[in-house]
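[Automated response] Your request has been received and processed.

Submitted sequence:
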Amino acid sequence: MRGFPPIDVSTLTAKGQVTVLKAAREALGLRQGDQLIWELEDGSVRVRAVSPSDLAYLQGLERGLNEWSNQAGRGSVPRSVHTLQPSF
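Generated structure:
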């Protein structure tokens, strides 16, 4: 990745937490409280900041699923999107 040393290592804590390296935080403009999306693919993890379009899409998807589920007589689907909060 351009702008980063070839090897940067973070350590996973006992609580499952990882420090986002300062160079990455600065490059992405991340601040305390910002939320990150973790995408798993082919044995790798891609981490990126939650964007307004991510929130709008997920909230719209949740509304659509609730509408579909209610029409099918199954009640609301479990809330998952409400935990994402915009920090921008």
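Summary generated for your ticket: The mean pLDDT is 78. Helices lie at 22-28, 52-71.
If you did not submit this request, please reply to this message.
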